[in-house]
Amino acid sequence: MAELPQSIEDALALLEAGGYVADRALATVLFLSLRMKRPLFLEGEAGVGKTEIAKVLAATLDRPLIRLQCYEGLDVSSAVYEWNYAAQMIEIRLDEASGKVDKKAIERNVFSEKFLIRRPVLQALSGKPGKAPVFLIDELDRTDEAFEAFLLEVLSDYQVTIPELGTIRAAEPPIVIITTNRTREIHDALKRRCLYHWVDYPSAERELEIVRRKVPAANERLSDEIVRYVQKLRDMDLFKLPGVAETIDWAGALTEMDKLALDPETVSDTIGVLLKYQDDIARISGGEGRRILDEVKAELNAA
After folding, report:
1. How far is CA 140 from CA 143, 158, 177, 188, in A?
2. What percent of the chain has pLDDT over 90?
3. Angle between helices 204-214 and 220-233 (to 10 degrees)
4. What is the pTM of this model?
5. What is the mean pLDDT of residues 88-92?
6. What residues does the ATPase dynein-related AAA domain cover (predicted)?
C-alpha cells in the first residue's frame, strides 16, 4: 500500500502517477486534506474531473473506493444500512419450528450483524486501520437537506448509531471526497467540516496534456484543434458548456473516424458528442461553428 503524500510535491506526483493532470492549488488542498484528516469538498461544473480525483486517489494509494451516488430521495436504508428482512423472517420461522420460545434470544439473533446489509456509509466506516477506504460522496447537491444534515453528523464523529446494535465507529476515518455540481447551495455547517476547492475548466495547455494522456492515439494536430475549439466554445453563452469529459470523448470519437484535423462537415456530424442540448447544437451548426473553426485554423497556422 502506498504511503500518504508527505509534501505538496508528493501530492502532485501522486496525481501524476494516476494520470491526473492537476495544478498546484489542487495538490495543495489535497495534501492538507490528507494530513489534517478532513473531508475534501470539490465544487465545479459537471465534467471537469471532480469524481476522477477520488478514483485516482484510491488507485494510487491502493485503497478500496466506496462510492455513494447521491440522488433526490436518498435515505438511510439506501445510504447507510438496512436489515435483511427476508433472511430474518426465515430465521424466525426456523427458530419457532425448532421449539425456541425465548423471544429476547430470537430478537438478539435476528438483529445481529449477519443480517445487517451494509450500504456505502457503513462500508466506509468499516475499513481496517492503515487501509481506510476512499469514500466518494458524489453529487451531494442532488440530495435533500435532511440527508445533508444526517451526513453532517456522520462526518463529525465518523460513527453511525444503529438502534438494535449500538454505535459503530470507524477504526480509522476514511478519506472523504465530496463533489457537487452546484445545482443548489450546500449548508455552511457541512462545508465548515471540509477543506474546499473549486475545480475549474483547465487551461488550454492542461487540457491538451489531458487529451494526450487519455487519447494517446489522437493525431497531434487534431488534439490541438479540438482543445482550441472547445476552449472557444466555453467563452460562449451556451446552456451547457462542454466539460473535459466531453473533450476526451470528442477526441476519441474523431480518432476512431481516422480524422487528422477538424473540418466543417466533421464538426457538424459529431457535435452531439460535445454538446448535449439542441439549442446549443443549433447555434453551433450554423455560421457560428464555422467562424470558430476558422479562428482555430488561423491561430494554429500563425503559430
Report:
1. 6, 18, 11, 14
2. 75
3. 130
4. 0.89
5. 88
6. 39-194
